Amino acid sequence: MQMIKNKILPLLLAILLASGDLPITPAAAGTADWEQRAAALEASQDWPELLKHAFRWTRATPADYRAWFTMGQAQQQLHLHEQAEGSYRQALRLNDGLTAGWFHLGVLLREKGEYEEAATANLRVLELAPEMTVARYNLGVIHERLKQPEQALATYRQITKQDPEFAPAWHNLGAILGNRGQLPEAINAFRRAAELAPDNPQTWLALATAYRATGQDAETEQALERLQQLDPELAREFTRKQ
């Protein structure tokens, strides 16, 4: 029953919004009022109510980019991805310098496999906010999806220098180095990732694999022991393949 509800809810919301049955709040409410209500709904993660609120907001002040961005956020959380993409694009038409809009648009484009445009969106984020590590990381992932390992490698290396506490970049750096046969450097990257995110079983699996490939039996067993604690099934799969 819950699964059916989860599937039907976005459809019902889409129909409701398309029909125009929601009452329109007067524009005189003021931007601060709209923003405060949106912030409260977002904090409580009441996405259906936020969607209805954003719909009213866009009807009341259609030239306000914040209304469209809020609409996109609610739609994205409710898995209305096509609608969310349209809302983010409208927000960006109204404000090309909206960093969060470019970021979320890039996420949606990457998820639907439109990697070239997703890369463009993330590059725009980095123009606006060069320190935004997660956007640079997303760009690295896109390079990998586009079969551009050299660009991905350079991107992950840049992240490890710019934000050395960002564990996913160390993990992905290790994976690329391992695929290139640079196992000692890959092990160092995986070790750093494990230090920063010790509860990630995929990193311990990668470490165990790299240790085994380099004949470091004691280190392999230590990594496997930690993997067993975190994900016994993954540990058994590793053991079966050896």
TrEMBL record:
Which Pfam families does the annotation name? TPR_11 (PF13414), TPR_19 (PF14559), TPR_8 (PF13181)
Signal is among the record's keywords: yes
Q: Which UniProt keywords apply?
A: Signal, TPR repeat
Instruction: Kindly indicate whether the keyword Mitochondrion belongs to this entry.
Output: no
Q: Which residues form a coiled coil?
A: none
Signal sequence interval, chain numbering: 1-29
InterPro entries per UniProt: TMTC_O-mannosyltransferase, TPR-like_helical_dom_sf, TPR_rpt
- Gene Ontology molecular function, alphabetical: mannosyltransferase activity
The protein's name in its UniProt record: TPR repeat-containing protein
Q: Which organism is it from?
A: Desulfurivibrio alkaliphilus (strain DSM 19089 / UNIQEM U267 / AHT2)
